[in-house]
Design a protein that fits this description.
Helix content: under 10%
Oligomer: single chain
CATH topology: Immunoglobulin-like
CATH superfamily: Immunoglobulins
CATH class: Mainly Beta
Membrane topology: Single-pass type I membrane protein
Number of strands: 10
Strand order of the largest sheet: 4-3-2-7-8-9-10
Protein name: Ig-like domain-containing protein
GO biological process, one term: cellular response to lipopolysaccharide
Subcellular location: Cell membrane
Main location: membrane
Number of helices: 1
Largest sheet: 7 strands, antiparallel
Amino acid sequence: MERCILPCSFQVDTGVIIHWIQMKGLHVHSFYSNQDQLGNQHQIYRNRTSLFKDQISRGNASLQLTGVKVQDEGRYECFISTINRNKTSYINLKVDGMKGDSSFPHCCFTLASFNQMVNDSNAHNSAIIQL
C-alpha cells in the first residue's frame, strides 16, 4: 500500500493544536489535548491518516497518508496553533498514477508556509516557499 508523507513543522511550544484540511473542504486529521481528534474526519480519510506522535514534541506535524489514490491529489492545509503563534502551511499533492513497473502511485508535492506570531506586539507574516 503506497503512502505519502506531507511535511509540516513548527517551532516547539506548548498547547499544540494541529489541523490538516484538504482544500476541497474535507477534514483530514486533527490533534489536540495530546491525542488524535478524528470525530470530524471525512470518511474518505478514515483509517488512512496518522501523525508521528512521538515527534510532535520536537515540532513535527507531518501527516502520513496511506492507501494513496489519484483522488487524493490537491491542496492540503496544515494549521498549527500554539500558545505563542500560529502557522499555516499549504502543500500541493500530485499523484502521478502508476510509476514504471510499480502498481503504486507516485507522490510529489510543493510547499508554502506562512508564520504568524500572535503574542508579539511587532507581529508580522513571513512567507517561505520551498519547491
